[in-house]
Structure formats: structure tokens, C-alpha cells
Amino acid sequence: MSESIVLTRGVPANESFAIDDLVECAESALRDYGTTILQYHPPKGFLPLRAAIAEREGVPVEQVILGNGSIQLLDLLIRTTLSPGDVVLVERPTYDRTIKALRRAGCQVHGIPVESDGLAIEALTRAMQRWRPRMLYLIPDFQNPTGATLSAAKRTAVMSLAAQYETLLVADLPYRPLRYWGQDAPALSDCGDAPLVQMSSFSKLISPGMRVGWMIAPEPMIEAMSTLVESACICPGMIPQGMVYEYLRRGLLEPALERLKALYAPRLRACLDSLERHVPGAHWVKPEGGFFLGVTLPEGITARAVREGAKAQGVTLSDGGAFFPDGDGSRFLRIPFCGVAENDIETALTHVGAVIQEMSVTGR
Ligand SMILES: Cc1ncc(COP(=O)(O)O)c(C=O)c1O
Question: Which CATH number do you get for residue 222?
Fold first, then answer.
């Protein structure tokens, strides 16, 4: 049998890494900022990179902290702002590591269904009334794992509810710069005035191995997080931050984004076309960017059975249950399309469709 096609991890394509550019950035960063980035450093991260992000995002530099990936910053935020028993609302489904980090901190995690245009606002309203949650965690653009983007009208509704209930809204934005077609939705900060934390990362834009993520939060939260960083690890890894700063300073990010879009857009198209052609009876959000597309299987067909059937055809799919705070997800498949070439996507989804059709016929 030919090599298996792996559709489990949301990783960038290996061919997307700008290795030559990064070699040059590493050399310049070490030569030009070596005594800073080779030394112990204050915990909030490399000041020139914090300042560059502050400028791009239009916020004071004091509100920006850098970390070893955005997931570390989320963990720090959770540990410094929440207490065991606190209620946190998330999308259902959502990024599995966020659910894990919240549970590790002893929080109660409740899910709000995701529709094709983002959170179900009626369900959110009822949950806000009932739980008065401390935090609402959202991936507003090209959500992991469904691919849904929160519409402009829903952004205003979410901001207004967060303001009314004084709930901290945490917007996780790693996929926002990766729009392949269509129009950007407005930034949440332009849709109202609620307590807001925004976080993102260079993992999907430059390299996840560099582990450079950022967070914008009110200053007292940044201070609490940096105190925790200092006692836990002194400072994040500084050499990658110097390299990322150099990458931005040389104007390499914008052309890199264009290259990524040119590489990934055809993969998303292949995914959408193949689903349409080969996977009848299922439904899915039609993302316009990002890394993922979530498929809900037809009634009576379980993701577990499809996974097993697809595995026999050399296609590895992930367990959808981890993305659901209530552990359900029995009919959910996440398709990460960026790290897989178009013909492999088509082959994989042809097999998935055949497995589903076979099950529908045999009533399995
Ligand atoms: C929504 C979301 N947040 C955070 C992360 C983690 O990013 P980082 O590599 O910056 O820790 C991911 C990675 O897949 C993600 O999908």
C-alpha cells in the first residue's frame, strides 16, 4: 500500500518554512542583538519585538507580553486570573489544549455551539445569564477545529454580552492573517467595549518550532503573568524572539503571508471540492482561510467507525471528542488541510466518502 495520508495535526507545511531567510535573520539577530538575546532577560520578552507588535496592533507596549508560544501565555493567563471552580465558556467544539489548560486549573468548562457564522448567540445569552462566567474563550477567525468565522453582527453581540456580564473575553487569533478569499471580519476591539485579551502567534506564519507567541492584555494582568514567568523560568527563549524581530524589521512577513496563502488556498479548495463530490450527507462550514475544516457526519454514522474504515485505506484521522468540552463529538471529524498536498487531500476524502457510503448501505 502507498504511504498513509495523515490528517490529524494542524501543522504548517514543511515546504512553507523560509529557511534561507531565517538563517540570515538568525545571524543578524545574534550579531546585532547578541548581548541582549544571549543573556538572561526581563520576563515580558524582547522589547523591540514587543514594540513592533504594539505598533501593528495599535496598543501601548506595556500591554504586550511575549511567550514560548501563545499556548504558554494562555496557561499563564488562566493561572493568574482564574481560580478552581470558576466557570469559563468556550466554543463547542474548540481547541483541545485550551480545554485541557482550563481543566488543569480546576475551572468548569461549558461549551456554546458553533454555527457556520460562529457562536450561537441565543445559547450564549442563556449561558451568560445562568453562569455569569469569569471568562469567554473564542477563536473568532477560521476557528480550530470547525473553520467558522464569527460574523460582524455576532461580534457586536458577543462584545455587548461580555460587557454586560463583565466577562473577560479572550480572543485567540493565530489564523486571522491567513484569509485565502473573502473579506476580513472587523476586529473585536472595533465591535464594542468589553474586557478583552487578544493573543496570537508566529507559529502558523513563520514556524511553530520557534515558539514565539504574544498576548495583549490590561497591564495588571501582564504584570501578574510576568511575575509568574520570572519565578517559573526567568524569561522565555530570547533567540527566536530576536529572529522574529529581525524577520519583521526586514519586511519579510508580508511576502511570506502571500506565499502561505498561495500554498494553502488550493489545499482548502481541494478540500471543499472533494467533500462536495465524495462525501454526501455530511455537512461542514465553508472556511475562507485558516488551517481546519470540521465535518459533521450524517446521522447514524460515527466518527470512530469512519476513522477505522479510513485507517484500513491508509488515511489517519483524529479523534473529534477532544475538541468537545462535554467529550461528545461522536459525529465530528477535523480535517487539517494545510500540511497535505491537494492530491492527497482528494485521495483521503475519496476514501472517507467511500467508507461513509458503505456504512450507509450496510446500515453499520
Ligand atoms: C487556536 C489555537 N491557539 C493556540 C495554538 C497554539 O499556538 P502556539 O504554537 O503559539 O502555542 C494553536 C495551535 O494549533 C491553536 O490552534
Answer: 3.40.640.10
Does one domain contain both 96 and 133? Answer: yes
CA nearest ligand 1 atom 5, residue? 71
**How many helices (H) does the chain have, and how many strands (E)?**
11, 13
pLDDT at 3: 76
Residues 338 and 297 in one domain: yes
53, 70, 72, 77, best to mutate for ligand 1 pocket (most atoms within 8 Å of CB)? 70
Last-in-domain residue among 216, 249, 282: 249
Which atom of ligand 1 is nearest to 213's Cα?
Answer: 10
Q: Hey, what's the cell of 131?
A: 453562569
Residue closest to 244 by CA, chosen among 40, 14, 33: 33
Question: Mean pLDDT in runs of 10 for the chain (364 residues)?
Answer: 83 97 98 98 98 97 98 98 98 97 98 97 98 98 98 98 98 98 97 97 98 98 98 97 98 98 98 94 96 95 94 92 90 96 95 90 66
The model's pTM: 0.96
CATH of the domain at 301: 3.90.1150.10
**CA of residue 71 to ligand 1 center, whole Å:** 6
Residue 238 has a pLDDT of: 98
Same domain, 193 and 292: no
Tell me: do 140 and 43 sit in the same domain. Answer: yes
Q: Under a CB-based contact definition with an 8 Å cutoff, are residues 150 and 198 in contact?
A: no
* Same domain? 24 vs 139: yes
| pLDDT score, position 2 | 61
The pLDDT value given to residue 254: 98
Of 149, 202, 204, residue with least CA distance to 171: 149
Q: Hunting for cell 455569569 — which residue is that? A: 132
Identify the residue whose cell numbers are 461580555.
Answer: 162
Contact between residue 35 and residue 345 where contact means Cβ atoms under 8 Å apart = no
- Residues 189 and 299 occupy one common structural domain: no
**Contacting residues for 361 by C-beta, under 8 A, at least 6 apart:** none
> What was the pLDDT predicted at 364?
56
Q: How many domains does the chain have?
A: 2
Range of the domain at 311: 5-16+254-362
Ligand 1 site residues (CB inside 6 A) read 10, 69-71, 95, 139, 144, 172, 174, 201, 203, 208, 213
